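Lab notebook, bench 4. Still working through the backlog of constructs that have no structural model yet. Next entry is a single chain of 115 residues. Request: give me the structure tokens for it.
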Amino acid sequence: MTKQIREYLEHLRQFLEAEHSQEEYAVELSRLHVRIGFFSHERLIHLLVTLGFAVFFLISLFMALTVGGVGLYILTVLFLVLLVPYIKHYYFLENSVQKMYLIYNQLEQLAGGKA
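Model written out:
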């Protein structure tokens, strides 16, 4: 997903650097609107998964600190190891979708306000 988003943002950057007709801007605006919907859905799913892992991490940390035991400490570390990449990926998704919102506004102006 990261590669796909980076490639699409690069496509948008190149598209905006060139001159186009209002109709071409409107078509690209429509495409971007659909893509934003897909990426926003992906962002929501990753938010839920990240929150789930955060809750599991906190529960296992609480249990490890109160009950103790090597197994609980290992489980806590495993949840933490999984949580860090999920947070990183969610951060990337969030920032990328925010960039797409800004580009959407730019395209909307270039297309003459048509959506």
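Notes after review: The chain has one domain: 21-107. The CA atoms of residues 64 and 71 lie 8 Å apart. Flag for follow-up if needed.
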